[in-house]
Amino acid sequence: MVVTTHHLALFNIAHGKYPLDDARMAGFTSALDRVNALADRSAGFVWRYVNAYADGASAEPVYADPLILPNLSVWESPEAAMAYVYRGVHGGFLQARERWFREIDGPSAVAWWVPMGEQPSLAESRRRLELLAAQGPSAEAFSLREPCPVPAPESESA
């Protein structure tokens, strides 16, 4: 049995073509509650930042551009996160993203390990995404498709 003391944080951004209240975004915005509810019920789901789209803007501003939409969640493992992100309903929306979102220059997603029970902030998440863009994959910031190993539990002897 593998014992872990960490979960996987996953942050991604999307750059909207239009404001969230624009009728051209309705195919995306009308599905948000349903897609988020599916995440909440997914195997391996731990937590997500729930106020990311309050009143069409982030409740914790992290980008000056209001069309940059953040998404932050925590999962038990990379496999659990990938099952949700790339398969099922969310996977279908991911494939259709060009209808609502612009292409982003550089990485649009980053993953890292957090101690169990930790809820990372959007500011920390942005820092991790910028680190991945500037320095490439590391234990501090990596891609979901190529995760770094989970940190070993700290020894209780000191």
| Major sheet summary line | 5 strands, antiparallel
Secondary-structure arrangement, i.e. CATH architecture: 2-Layer Sandwich
End-to-end distance, in Å?
A: 25 Å
Number of helices: 5
Query: Considering DSSP H and I runs of 4 or more, what fraction of the residues is helical?
Result: 25-40%
What's the SSE pattern? EHHEEHHEEH
Calculate the mean pLDDT score and round it.
89
- Strands, total number: 5
- What is the third-level CATH name, the topology? Alpha-Beta Plaits
Shape: globular
When the domains are counted, the total is 1
Provide the gyration radius in Å. Answer: 16 Å
Strand content: 15-25%
Q: What is the C-level CATH assignment?
A: Alpha Beta
Low-confidence stretches: 54-58
Structural class: alpha+beta
Characterization of the model:
- The protein has 158 residues and is an alpha+beta fold.
- It has one domain (6-135): Alpha-Beta Plaits.
- Helices cover 28% and strands 20% of the residues.
- The protein has five helices and five strands; from the N terminus they run βααββααββα.
- Strands 1, 2, 3, 4 and 5 form a five-stranded antiparallel sheet that branches.
- The chain is globular and about 50 Å long.
